[in-house]
């Protein structure tokens, strides 16, 4: 469990089945599959009302997708990448009705994107059930050029767009699903603290 | 001042809307425009009764566009503790009263994709304002309004004119029942439900929402509860060194006010949390009548809401 350091830092409380939901819409990425298996294994009534979307991400080759398929949910959508998963989720959200409970498990960047997409369809972020699994790598927006860098594990790091040296803050944007990266050597260019591997 | 700024107003119009509901139009005594409010807001009306000041919260129906008036609706309750009886019997056109600044504990969620407004009886007053705001902003909404009989639906004609077939009526005398399980299926993701009315109705609607799998974040309600009566008891304020008696027909907050204590309050109905006080000692059972404190708060015995809750015992000592 990640500790909250500042107010905007999200807290992921873990997946928990909503027994009253009429439809379970579950998005998982990489090791997030394990959280889904923990929640749904043996829950036949819930599985009969569940739609699962899964992108293997960094866990390809570990057969997580096959285990999810073996749950035999009402709908199972294995997808090659996060963007294709988000496209499919978007289509489902467009016609979803109240009584649908949304769950997401995986890396923070993935959770952030799913919660932001749900929010764009009028879903309160508080009502999305989330569980962080896998790498602590962050999705970071450079506050200077606004470019996104995925899978940031160290701070400071070099912005993949504008090349500035960025310090990774805990300040999190729900809208963007990203942490903020701020130039670390603005006052004395070149004076850069040693990079620390903080988010593996 | 604990209740916030008070605005002197004059009653400029009284309308007997039904056998039991009067609608009052308030104009500012100063002539300065009354402040705008977001729909769902209420004011506390201060009524100068012979022996005390009665303070009751009433939802605002609307505000004249130029700010020259507010309207409220008051149901004459059979078990009135003085407030609704005062409004119905003592107040005439020209009466001057004071109101507090509007406070909104029942706001619309503007990020919502659709809004289901559900009202029972006098609970229509905040719903009326909310529907108007949704109409003006071209939002998606439905109004479901339950009443005893058509003649008790004070607001039906105005609502019908503004909202057309978005208004659905449920009249007891036509054997029409508001069934929540008929309203909730197939509502789009991002829909929100708002309910105001009698306590039993609110509970049934909210429970229906939960049963339909709606998240708590999408279920909203407001209920102004009169402070329940009970046995008399004593209260002592440890810091202020003040002690007084709470009569059986009086709330703790009212007793403190009568003793000259400027205690904090906003809604006076157990909803907002403003009047929360820390309990130091209670030689009896705390009777929690609010819907603000959590189960854990209640179990701790360390907190009480002054506006509606009481002690079943001899003396209560508060950290005030």
Characterization of the model:
Chain B: Residues 233-320 form the 2Fe-2S ferredoxin-type domain. Chain B: Residues 4-109 form the FAD-binding FR-type domain. Chain B: Its cofactor is FMN. The complex is a heterodimer of chains A (200) and B (320). Chain A is of the alpha/beta class. Chain A folds into 2 domains: 23-132, Rossmann fold (3-Layer(aba) Sandwich), CATH 3.40.50; 138-197, no CATH class. In chain A, 23% of the residues lie in helices and 30% in strands. Chain A has helices at residues 32-40, 44-47, 64-70, 82-94, 108-120; strands spanning 23-29, 50-55, 75-78, 100-106, 129-132, 138-142, 148-152, 154-155, 157-158, 165-173, 178-183, 196-197. In chain A, the strands form 3 sheets. A 5-stranded parallel sheet of chain A has the order 3-2-1-4-5, with helices on both faces. Chain A has a 5-stranded mixed sheet with strand order 7-6-11-10-9. In chain A, strand 6 (138-142) and strand 7 form a beta hairpin. In chain A, helix 1 (32-40) packs parallel to helix 3 (64-70) and helix 4 (82-94) runs parallel beside helix 5. The mean pLDDT of chain A is 92. Chain B has 320 residues and is of the alpha/beta class. Chain B folds into 3 domains: 6-104, Beta Barrel (Elongation Factor Tu (Ef-tu), domain 3); 114-222, Rossmann fold (3-Layer(aba) Sandwich), CATH 3.40.50; 233-318, Beta-grasp domain (Ubiquitin-like (UB roll)). Chain B is 18% helix and 36% strand. Chain B is built from 7 helices and 17 strands. Chain B has helices spanning 83-89, 124-136, 156-163, 180-183, 199-211, 252-258, 295-300; strands spanning 6-16, 21-28, 41-48, 53-63, 70-75, 96-100, 103-104, 114-120, 141-147, 167-171, 191-196, 219-222, 233-237, 242-246, 276-287, 303-305, 310-318. A 6-stranded antiparallel beta barrel of chain B has the order 1-2-5-4-3-6. In chain B, strands 10-9-8-11-12 form a 5-stranded parallel sheet, with helices on both faces. The longest helix of chain B is centred in the middle third of the chain and has 13 residues, at 124-136. The radius of gyration of chain B is 20 Å and the shape is globular. The two termini of chain B are 16 Å apart.
